[in-house]
Specification:
It contains 13 helices and no strands. It is mostly helical.
């Protein structure tokens, strides 16, 4: 009996320690599928962000920035309204809940969007996109007073590398210094504040509601600075950029959201950084913009800081429980 029991125990342990080959194949296939989905959605997001910048610059030949943003918000509102007609269940999400926070978030985002669009018309694409990636640095700094989060070692390192990257790109005090770069940094700060407000809203408001109220509130803001007859200035050569801006204004956010749902941030964020070389190539091919080595060097420092903090946060979230209970458990510094 003892030998038979030991043999049975051995078989059970062997089965638990050595999963079947079919299960390993399932795990590999699932991981590959998730990576494939992330790459698919991030490709859509990268194309959308790049097309948005090109469309803004094309439309700036005939329209001011307010009028360009009117097109973006108006088209987004039309697309979302069509979804409401096709899917009536979405209407339940549009309850008048936390409208003050919506107004604050959308005002900050609109000013940031205006600054970003204006910078796109004045600066090389790669410079704008590289400096825009300082947004996570500003989030880390603003989260301390606004969300009462603590500053960890990796977050401090991320901030330092971010600011070093900005100094390399902006190069203050040199003949190549461009004051308009501060316009992008201003936009990045406002985007960071908008993200913090979004984090607060997502606790009890759906993503569809956040995007819907954003377009609905930002449309009158944009129309306030627009000529009522500005659509008459849209010539035949601007029809395509107009349609493209309206479409990618929705697809960029949708594709990025789907990418985060398909995989971890550690998979999505590195792919998002491909925006910089992609838009630099677009600027070089279609607008004759020089490939500035300082922009790429500064972007590299910013990206290293963001990835460092992302890796540390991922390790912190995956840390095993301490066994002290949810009230007493603490998470060690990353």
């Amino acid at each position: 009996m003892t030998a038979r029991r030991e043999a049975a125990t051995t078989r059970l342990l062997g089965a638990s320690l050595a999963p079947p080959l079919s299960r390993l194949k399932d795990i590999v296939v699932a991981t590959t599928t998730h990576l494939g989905r992330v790459i698919f959605w991030m490709t859509g997001a990268l194309i959308s962000f790049s097309v948005s910048a090109v469309a803004v610059r094309a439309l700036s030949r005939a329209l001011n920035v307010f009028e360009i943003l009117s097109i973006r918000s108006g088209a987004g509102l039309l697309i979302l309204s069509a979804l409401l007609l096709l899917r009536p269940e979405l209407r339940q999400a549009l309850r008048l809940r936390r409208m003050g926070m919506h107004a604050l978030r959308n005002s900050l985002h609109f000013i940031g969007q205006y600054s970003w669009a204006l910078a796109v018309t004045l600066l090389p694409f790669a410079t704008v996109f590289a400096l825009e990636f300082t947004t996570p640095v500003w989030v880390a700094l603003l989260a301390i007073p606004l969300l009462h989060e603590r500053m960890t070692g990796p977050r401090i390192g991320s901030v330092i590398l971010g600011f070093l990257g900005v100094l390399v790109i902006v190069r203050p005090g040199l003949s190549s210094f461009e004051p308009m770069t501060f316009l992008v940094l201003f936009a990045a700060v406002l985007f960071a504040m908008s993200l913090i407000a979004t984090k607060s809203l997502t606790r009890d408001v759906s993503t569809f509601a956040i995007i819907f109220w954003m377009n609905l509130m930002q449309l009158p803001m944009a129309l306030a600075g627009s000529d009522p007859l500005f659509p008459l200035r849209l010539t035949a050569d601007l029809v395509l950029p107009t349609i493209a801006l309206g479409v990618v204004g929705v697809t960029s956010h949708f594709c990025l959201t789907q990418a985060f749902r398909s995989g971890d941030a550690s998979m999505v964020v590195p792919l998002d950084f491909l925006r910089i070389p992609l838009i630099a190539l677009v600027g070089w091919m279609f607008y004759g913009e020089a490939l500035d080595v300082f922009v790429f060097a500064g972007a590299g420092l910013i990206i290293c800081g963001v990835l460092w903090n992302l890796h540390a946060e991922s390790r912190r979230l995956r840390a095993p429980p301490t066994g002290l209970g949810p009230e007493k458990a603490t998470v060690p510094d990353a």
